Automatic annotation (TrEMBL):
PANTHER family, alphabetized: NAD(P) TRANSHYDROGENASE, PROTON-TRANSLOCATING NAD(P)(+) TRANSHYDROGENASE
Domain Alanine dehydrogenase/pyridine nucleotide transhydrogenase NAD(H)-binding: 147-309
Keywords recorded for this protein, A-Z: NAD, NADP, Nucleotide-binding, Translocase
InterPro entries, alphabetized: AlaDH/PNT_N, AlaDH/PNT_NAD(H)-bd, NAD(P)-bd_dom_sf
Function: The transhydrogenation between NADH and NADP is coupled to respiration and ATP hydrolysis and functions as a proton pump across the membrane.
Protein name according to UniProt: proton-translocating NAD(P)(+) transhydrogenase
Reaction(s) this enzyme catalyzes, per UniProt: NAD(+) + NADPH + H(+)(in) = NADH + NADP(+) + H(+)(out)
Domain Alanine dehydrogenase/pyridine nucleotide transhydrogenase N-terminal: 6-138
SUPFAM superfamilies associated with the record: Formate/glycerate dehydrogenase catalytic domain-like, NAD(P)-binding Rossmann-fold domains
Organism: Dyella jejuensis
EC number assigned by the record: 7.1.1.1
Enzyme kind, highest EC tier: translocase
């Protein structure tokens, strides 16, 4: 019997992505796997049932009863893992930290589960790095939101009514999301700067045509993330940033670490010092925000400055976000399927470090 790989319609609020696209379904079929989807699983992403070739469709209950390998974008409703047949395998962004009840169900059902947020940030993992692919979408959309909500034009314009100066924009955090935000602001014609405590990002920021803001604080870490700043370093960072913020029109913050609260970079006092009409778009809102005043999913106004905390930005561009995410899923699934059977090699670092449940046990660190 061939392996059945499946996906359900995503149920998180506002979620429009799908874990298996027509392109990836075709790739699974070429490997001899059966693909089974819930009806309309891809419709919200722009992939109606008719766009899938040689794929079976069924109700959610039927899908769960027949699935060997379930792919998801975000954790499904709490009862889904309990309805998945015992011994099955799950791949997706499972958000295991702080989700004890959901993780316990994985163990009770003896499911093998892989949370792709936990993949090591190595060259080999890039093809399956869901954090990077979805962060690229989020960074792009964050800057479009900034341009739409800013009270000024982004580019310089010369008109019969005079010359309009370009907006001054700062992106805090030069990871994938930050770099994509910088590139987007550059395309829109803004005067753009990038800032990160990791000095190695300077070259990346400048390669996109932006100026690197150096505040004299360096915090190079491991695994692609910055180390935590000391009290003295944080004070120096905030003092330098506070002074620079006074001249900016837009600030987009993107500093986040999976499974941890986002670092607080902008204090209320720093926002207070910004000029009226300035805008902050906090891409880290889902994990608490980089700004003390951020409220997830809300618009806040403080001393004439607007702070936006948008959520799940990748879901707002579901077609391309799904295409990238589904390719990540497929590339990881190739590590699990050998000789037509699910045979994960737990000696493989990528497999071992992303596994959160196996043989009825939750793994250490979950």
């Amino acid at each position: 019997m061939s392996i059945t790989v499946s996906a359900l319609r995503e149920t998180a609020v506002g979620e429009r992505r799908v874990a298996i696209t027509p392109e990836v379904a075709k790739k699974f079929r070429s490997k001899g796997l059966r693909v089974l989807l819930e009806h309309d699983a891809g419709t919200a992403a722009g992939f109606p049932d008719g766009s899938y070739a040689d794929v079976a469709f069924a109700t959610a209950d039927q899908v769960l009863a027949e699935t060997d390998l379930l792919a998801c974008v975000l954790p499904p409703d709490d009862d889904v893992f309990g309805r998945l047949r015992e011994g099955g395998t799950v791949i997706g962004q499972l958000r295991p930290h702080g989700a004890g009840a959901r993780m316990e169900v994985l163990a009770q059902r003896k499911l093998t589960a892989f949370s792709l947020e936990l993949l090591p940030r190595t060259t080999r993992a890039q093809a399956m790095d869901v954090l990077s692919s979805q962060a690229a979408v989020a960074g792009y959309r964050a800057m479009l939101i900034a341009a739409e909500n800013a009270p000024k034009f982004f580019p310089m314009l010369t008109t019969a009514a005079g010359t309009i100066r370009p907006s001054r924009v700062l992106v805090i955090g030069a990871g994938v999301a930050g770099l994509q935000a910088i590139a987007t602001a550059r395309r829109l014609g803004a005067q753009i700067e990038g800032y990160d405590v990791r000095p190695e990002t300077r070259e990346q920021v400048e390669s996109l045509g932006a100026k690197f803001l150096d505040v004299g604080v360096s915090a190079a870490g491991s695994g692609g993330y910055a180390r935590e700043l000391t009290v003295e370093e944080r004070a120096a960072q905030q003092q330098a940033l506070a002074e620079h913020l006074k001249v900016l029109d837009v600030v987009v913050t993107t500093a986040a670490v999976p499974g941890r609260a986002a670092p607080k970079i902008l204090t209320a006092a720093m926002v207070q010092g910004m000029k009226p009409g300035a805008l902050v778009v906090d891409l880290a809102a889902e994990s608490g925000g980089n700004c003390e005043l951020t409220r997830p999913g809300e618009r806040v106004e403080h001393a004439g400055v607007v702070i936006l905390g948008p959520l799940n930005l990748a879901a707002g561009a579901p077609l391309h976000a799904s295409e990238m995410y589904a390719r990540n899923i497929y590339n990881f699934a190739e590590l699990l399927v050998r000789d037509g059977a699910l045979q994960p090699d737990f000696n493989d670092e990528l497999v071992a470090k992303s596994c959160v449940a196996r043989n009825g046990e939750l793994l250490a660190g979950v």
